[in-house]
């Protein structure tokens, strides 16, 4: 399916815009972003694709009329030809904004509140650097952040557990690592579902293992 990405954008009254964080959804478009594993920063974008998405997200804010504050712009990319479309735009601080703030250390809500009363990004100090640089500097991180949703279908007997555009998770965990593999492994352990990471669900010596895996992937709730 089409790949899904998010951009967290902050704009001030002087039209200064920064990208706080790029987020990539592990699941393809069609699954609610709250139910999808997400990774920040985006891992599979080329620099050209990122710059196009960056410019497009800022253009969306200007077209919608978001004069100050933070916004979340969601894109979908066709992996076959690179076609890019805007699928959603939230002109406010959202759930993804909270993730971006935790991932980068950039206080989006705090900055948005100050921008709303007339400050500009270059007038505000950057909390990440202890005030040594202005908030107009885009955050740059040398680690990977993974968010995994937490489901609790066992408490809702009869509920359809097939993931769609309707959010069904009841919470989420976030983990930080030097690599995507490390952060993903930490997040799986943090779910507190008894998993210590990528635990095998079937015995590798079981001749029916492949059949079981195929059935679990095909049948919802298997």
Automatic annotation (TrEMBL):
GO MF term (any one): metal ion binding
TM segment ranges: none
UniProt feature coiled coil, ranges: none
Catalytic activities: hydrogencarbonate + NH4(+) + 2 ATP = carbamoyl phosphate + 2 ADP + phosphate + 2 H(+)
Keyword ATP-binding assigned: yes
EC number: 6.3.4.16
Top-rank taxon: Bacteria
Domain ATP-grasp residues, every copy: 1-117
Keywords: Amino-acid biosynthesis, Arginine biosynthesis, ATP-binding, Ligase, Nucleotide-binding, Pyrimidine biosynthesis
Protein name: carbamoyl-phosphate synthase (ammonia)
Example of a GO biological process term: L-arginine biosynthetic process
Pfam annotation, one family: CPSase_L_D2
PANTHER family, per the entry: CARBAMOYL-PHOSPHATE SYNTHASE [AMMONIA], MITOCHONDRIAL, CARBAMOYLTRANSFERASE FAMILY MEMBER
GO cellular component: cytoplasm
């Amino acid at each position: 399916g089409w790949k899904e990405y998010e951009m967290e954008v902050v704009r001030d009254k002087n039209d200064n815009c920064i990208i706080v964080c790029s987020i990539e959804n592990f699941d393809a478009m069609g699954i609610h972003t709250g139910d999808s594993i997400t990774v920040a920063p985006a891992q599979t974008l080329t620099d050209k694709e990122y710059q196009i998405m960056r410019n497009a997200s800022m253009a969306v804010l200007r077209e919608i009329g978001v004069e100050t504050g933070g916004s979340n712009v969601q894109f979908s990319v066709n992996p076959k030809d690179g076609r890019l479309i805007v699928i959603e735009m939230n002109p406010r601080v959202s759930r993804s904004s909270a993730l971006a703030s935790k991932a980068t250390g950039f206080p989006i809500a705090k900055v948005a509140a100050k921008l709303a009363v007339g400050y500009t990004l270059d007038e505000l100090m950057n909390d990440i650097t202890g005030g040594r640089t202005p908030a107009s500097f885009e955050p740059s991180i040398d680690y990977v952040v993974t968010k995994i949703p937490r489901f609790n279908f066992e408490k809702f007997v009869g509920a359809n557990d097939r993931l769609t555009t309707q959010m069904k998770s009841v919470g989420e965990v976030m983990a930080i690592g030097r690599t995507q593999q490390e952060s993903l492994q930490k997040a799986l352990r943090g779910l507190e579902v008894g998993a210590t990471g990528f635990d095998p669900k079937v015995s590798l010596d079981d001749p029916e293992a492949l059949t079981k895996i195929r059935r679990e992937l095909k049948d919802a709730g298997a």
